[in-house]
Amino acid sequence: MEETKPTLVLEHVSKSFGDFAAVSDLSLQVRPGRVFGLIGPNGAGKTTTIRMIVNITVPDSGRIELFGQQMNTAMQDRIGYLPEERGLYKRMKVGEQLRFFAELKGLRGQESEARIDSWLGKLQLTGWKEKRTKELSKGMQQKVQFITSVIHDPDLVILDEPFSGLDPVNVDLMKETILEQKAAGKTIILSTHQMEIAEKLCDDVCMINKSRKVLDGKLREIRRSFSRNAVALQFAGGDGLLNDPALVANVRPNGDEFEVLLVPGKNPQELLRRLVEAGVPVTKFELVEPSLHDIFIEKAREVA
Amino acid sequence: MRKLLAVVKREYVQRVRSKFFVVATILGPVMLAAFAILPPLMSGIKGGGPTRLAIADQTGKMYERVARELTRDKKSNKSGATEPPTQPPVGNRNPREQVDQAGRLFQRSFLLEEVHLDNRSLDQIRSQLDSRIQQRDLDGYIVLPPNLLKDEQPEFRARNSADLLTQNSVRDAISRAVRGQRLVEAGIKETDVEKASEPVSLKTTGAGGAESNGQASYYFVFAIDLLIYMSVLLYGQLVLGAVIEEKETRIAEILFSSMRSFPLMMGKLVGVSLVALTQLGIWAAAFLIFSLWAAGGSAITLPQVPRMLFLYFALYFLMGFFIYATIYAVVGSMVTTTQEGGQLALPVVLMLVAGFYLTFSIMRNPNSPLAFWASIFPFFAPITMLSRIVTETPPMWQIALSFGIGVVTIVGLVWLASRIYRVGMLMYGKKATIPEVWRWIKQS
After folding, report:
1. Contact criterion met (CB < 8 Å) for A101 and B14
2. How many independent structural domains does chain B possess?
3. Which of A77, A82, A91, A103 is best to mutate for the B interface (most B CBs within 10 A)?
4. Are residues B405 and B344 in the same domain?
């Protein structure tokens, strides 16, 4: 896996609009067959980065290499792109719409028709092929939009906030579909600010904040390296027990439980022993790896 | 290229199938016919009957002459004799005949009576005639003063003093009568005077060599101009709407992730132009079929349209469409709503309107320097050159020159536009300013 050539390479890419730097000196690698999370808050520069990857805009400086070649227009056919802002022709029928977007990616005829039917079936839209797009609900339109980004069987699928506006059932359906694409060997770039979803789907992540990369690597490794001796704790009794600065650095109530951050170097077993000795019933004691959310907040603070 | 064709196909199929297209295709000729037929029809209705004039002749010898001149006016029009001009036009007549009739009605016919002076004073006569005018027994009267033949001014009083056409007829008739009388009194024989004042009747010949009626071809040019003006405007605005839709619904983002902006814009323009040509083609075919049917023994005859004119029309329509629709596409990419687009596109529309108004002057003098430059200037040429071709076909090199300049203009515009288009289409939320647009052009 490590030896395979990366699908996408960005080297020192920068893009600004007037005085505003949207992306500064961004370098990253996306490896084939993996889900790559591009995460960051709104306005961090995710969309600008993606637009450069799909060749909608050109970087001011730096280099973008896709499938081992310098980015060019012909390569656009090998990319599938679901933009954050959805756009479909409202008055066109669903089938026609998909046929048109497939044709823009160089896919026509029988093949195109077969894939349209198969995708509509997979996303539970079979009966809607001859309906006008404006008659569809928002969630359904979003699924149609998703189909436009994968209909031509691209090697690289870029999904910008694919879950926004979907109900829980469809969120699961979408997750499943993304994982299917991954299993089929596609490279997927997933841009989102919903850290919980990124956490569940991504193999690698790159965090950007205020136009700069703040973190990047395999998700598992990142989380391990950010492990901070934290315990999720649920017990009956006052939090007076946790009031020992020699052991506990910070306590944060989280619903009906506490997130306890231990002083670096201290063993969590020490805390458990004290609780048991105090005789309070412990209903939950769990070592937690930091969430992407926490990591992000920490990194964002560092930058600021 | 395939992608461009995909865009062309989408634009064409979607639009030709739309209700708008069907309705416009049916209503277009109806509207145009209304525009072409209504004005003459309306002036015909206003004409009503002959103008009833009384003449008070204080010279005692001029009535006969003036009356003759006033009625000669009418008879000089050759068709005036065959059909009483008082009859209002009836609906189902061919446009040319209606125009003729309108022309006759402009010239008016007069119902004359001599006022017997009977030693009454002029004031008494006037008050009597004025009251008759008030009772609508009379439309006006003329007073010929005793010294008319020297320099005294005749007087014309009419209920409708704004009716310039009648005023002109009266003035001309009196002038001729006075001239005739002066000549006779100077010793020239009446028959010679009569011969000398025989009016000339113009035989007007149009571009195709066919005899035509001046006023009819005036309306024909007007109709052609109106048609090309409306088509360019309508289909230009269709492009504006389509571009704004793609921008606002963010479809542009997907389109740009699949193709470059030049084929995208070209595809859109070509697609919509084909829609327009389809519509115009349907109209032309309908017109031809109708005129064939009309030629086969029906009483209706349509104006003879030289076949070449269809080709010229198509070419100049395309030129106008590509120039204006390209500008519309750029405007669409710069704004966020249709209203804003309308405002920003106003100068564009004014340019088209200016071309339209220029034709009025060009028709009067199709070979003037003004006509030449206006029909070479690419933003006016689609309308102005076409009017020149219809009124008096200019030398081939001029047509070729205007067309060449048009093509160069289009290429330049499209090149410039696709640079603005790409940036504009991806900028959301606010209207672009001119300095910003300038920067985009330089950057890309």
Report:
1. no
2. 2
3. A103
4. yes
CB nearest A87 (choices: B9, B18, B254): B254
**Chain A interface includes B443 (CB < 8 A):** no
Query: Does the structure show a pLDDT above 80 at B93?
Result: no
Q: How close is the nearest chain A Cα to the Cα of B438, in Å?
A: 13
User: At which of B196, B222, B242 does a domain end?
Assistant: B196
B436 and B340, same domain (yes or no) = yes
Among candidates A56, A86, A103 on the partner chain, residue whose Cβ is nearest the Cβ of B257? A56
B333/B416 Cα distance (integer angstroms): 13
User: Whole-prediction pTM value?
Assistant: 0.70
How far apart are the CA of A218 and the nearest CA of chain B, in angstroms?
28
Assess whether pLDDT exceeds 60 at residue B305. Answer: yes
- Contact across the interface for B250 and A148, Cβ inside 8 Å: no
Among residues A14, A11, A52, the alpha carbon closest in space to that of A211 is found at A14
CB B236 within 8 A of CB B324: yes
Q: Does the residue B366 lie in any domain?
A: yes
CB–CB of B6 and A86 under 8 A? no
Give the pLDDT mean for B241-261.
Answer: 87
Closest Cα in chain B, distance from residue A274 (Å): 59
Choose the final residue of a domain: B164, B196, B228.
B196
Q: HSE (CB half, 13 Å, CA atoms) of B308?
A: 7
Full set of structural domains in chain A with CATH = 8-224 (3.40.50.300), 228-288 (3.30.70.100)
Task: Confirm if A58 and A51 have CB atoms less than 8 A apart.
Answer: no
Q: Give the range of the structural domain holding residue B94, as residue numbers without chain letter.
A: 48-196
* Inside any domain, residue B117: yes
Q: Do B257 and A55 touch (CB under 8 A)?
A: yes
Task: Give the Cα separation of B201 and B213 in Å (integer).
Answer: 12
Rounded mean pLDDT, A96-106? 92
ipTM above 0.95, yes or no: no
Q: How far apart are the first and last CA of chain A?
A: 36
| B235/B168 same-domain check | no
